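Supplementary Methods, section 5.1.

A reviewer requested that the exact input to the structure prediction be made available. We therefore reproduce it here, unchanged from the version used in the analyses.
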Amino acid sequence: KMTKALGSFKMAAKQGDPHAALRTGICLEATDMWEARRYYLMAAKHGLSDAQYNLGMLDQTLANWKESRTMLLLAAKQNHVGALNNLGWMYMEGRGCQKDVVRAKNYFIKASNGGDAFGCANMGLLEVIMGRKQEPTLHRQLQQQQRPGMDHWMGGDPVRQLQQDRIDKKVREMVVNKTPGWVKACTDQQRRQEKE
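The structure derived from this sequence is encoded token-by-token as follows.
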């Protein structure tokens, strides 16, 4: 069935269908990266953010960092959360660009706000790297900026704040140690903070 579907996708891609080109790239990526790259590029030229993202990630696998950044930037302009997260990682690590933790933080925040659990986890990791273990999480800082008076709403309850700080610390430890369930813990933490 896969061979038949691949044949149909290839035929439609050759006739100019960018969605078929994307699907062809997905089918080929595990067996022929260079051919997959060619189809992703075909779809990316039509502005498909998923194709731009996949091409950017494939370029990272091939260590084409600058080309990866170019494609991820195109996808990020369309609010592709995976692209936003991976751009943050590239800036955090200085891969294909100059190391810039401020830009990394901004991309992680955008990815996290778009619902990307990896963006949330990477934001926590960046916080640990930057040595902000005792400060509120970046996500909570962002929420306070977006919702003035949130501290007053929380009532200044020191017990509740202590409980939240312990949860934040545990999630940071899970992220750093890559403990099983760290992505779920980070996502749950983000949802909890959004309810506050």
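Confidence is low (pLDDT under 50) at residues 141-159. These observations are discussed further in the main text.
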